[in-house]
Queue: 2 jobs
Job 1
Amino acid sequence: MRNLVLFGPPGSGKGTQSAFLVKHYNLVHLSTGDVFRFNIKGGTELGKLAQSYMDKGELVPDEVTISMLEQEVEKRPDAIGFIFDGFPRTTAQAVALDKFLETRGVSIESMLALEVEVEELKKRLLARAETSGRVDDSNLDVIQNRIDVYNAETAPVANFYKTAGKFKSINGLGSKEDVTGRLVAAIG
Ligand code: B4P
């Protein structure tokens, strides 16, 4: 089973690149952000809870996110592998994911970390806001908070995969196709 973690700051291209990689490798795409947005749209209790954090650029609490992620994996017993997009975002989530996969006799193959400088991230998110209608993309203070939360809580997750020898750094600048080419070369 091929399980990949696509990692990087907000706007680094995780969702964009996942769309290509799932087709290329025939994997299931699991974006925690997409699942939260689906629930917000549907007005579920989970959606209401998630929205109160997402609109401010904060992370949704670990226990909620971890249990949701596990349920999503369990819905796909047919999968030959997953792309985890936007998960794990904290070290506690990374530890929980490892344990969960271990109970299923599988593991993460590698973490692919998209590296993009801050000014480019802001530019991309503000451009997306024009069409996405996402509250968390349209306000520069919220974007800055998302980047700060990433640096404080999410960036350290890379060390977890570095220690395990599974970390791969990918230059996320350039055209979407250029970035895809680098990812495919790194995945092999
Ligand atoms: P996500 O949905 O994961 O949102 P994101 O980080 O903004 O998306 P992504 O990185 O995939 O966007 P992309 O660059 O592809 O998370 C949203 C929120 O959900 C979080 O802030 C948090 O509140 C919550 N959440 C999610 N997961 C969680 C977890 N595990 N724990 C707790 N909370 C969680 O796209 C950005 C734009 O850039 C697009 O417009 C795209 O077209 C453009 N772009 C991409 N590649 C480009 C390139 N090479 N050149 C130019 N533009 C490019």
Note: Residues 10-16, 31-33, 36, 53-54, 57-60, 65, 86-87, 89, 93, 124, 127-128, 136, 146, 175-176, 179 surround BIS(adenosine)-5'-tetraphosphate (CB under 6 Å).
Job 2
Amino acid sequence: MAPNLSDVSQISAVTERLAADDHGLARAAQLLRDGACVAFPTETVYGLGADARNGEAVAGIYAAKGRPSFNPLIAHVADAASAQRHVVWSDLAEKLARAFWPGPLTLVLPLAPDHGISSLTTAGLDTLAVRVPAHPAAQALLRAFDGPLAAPSANPSGRISPTTADHVLAGLSGRIAAVLDDGPCSVGVESTIVGLADGVPRLLRPGGLATEPIEAVLGHALAQPASDDITAPGQLSSHYAPAGAVRLNAEASQGDEVFLGFGPGPCDLSLSPDGDLAQAAARLFDCLHRLDATGRPIAVAPIPDSGLGLAINDRLRRAAAPRP
Ligand code: TXA
Ligand code: MG
């Protein structure tokens, strides 16, 4: 039976803010075992976690985010051995996992027999996206919970992704059981997603791991998504959107706009005064949250389209896309 998204029975009146210490981790793991949704930090963005094997718990993620439709979610696990309980492993998966896990890389692989994952996590696909986050609090939570956690970014659907617990609470307070607070995320944009389901490594979403090191390990370029591949939510439609308008590749602000800079030059806020792409990725969503709070439209300086610039420009294009 399809879960009813207007069902508010899972929605918590008070959202607990938990420290990432033994007590907070034990409380978060208990809430997750009880089928509740708990936001937790990863090195990319804060995720909204629920037991990936429990359809009702995963339905709680959709209810809290107000997501209108079911996208497949990423299953977070503590290590590659845990991933192998749920997916069909391959030499290519082993090669990429050895090079980049734990870290901001998600692999899409065929579901294993007896995978145990809820069809709401996979949106009914016969593949699963798996990721081993490097963040110590995410690692500790996964080990305390001892199971796979489905976790999209912990923000209301379509809005700016959260890189601090304050961002999470600003969007979801009262709608989720708890947030595990361990400070700002270091990478700042979501994981890079590589599809391996048909044996050809394909870039499904640019993200916090640049494509260049992945291609260096593979010894060849990543392929485009296949025509029937699911790519990231709203590929060309609005996502990661501030409330106000966003104008890209701007040399300066016009009219009422606030200016988000990159590199030297005057601006209201800078992604990176030195033009450092890793710093810009880490600051991207926080800068958008801050500028959005001014209530004014946002103009953004050009960002180079290489390295982490690929993921930054992908998020910016969607932030600027026409709203539904
Ligand atoms: O960094 C991240 O990846 C963050 C943190 C919390 O770990 N998580 C995240 O999750 O961005 P989410 O739910 O926004 O990403 C899910 C996306 C889907 O929209 C789709 O693009 C891809 O992952 N995906 C998931 N399962 C897939 C599958 N079976 N086949 C292809 N793509 C899939
Ligand atoms: Mg998201």
Note: The radius of gyration is 19 Å.
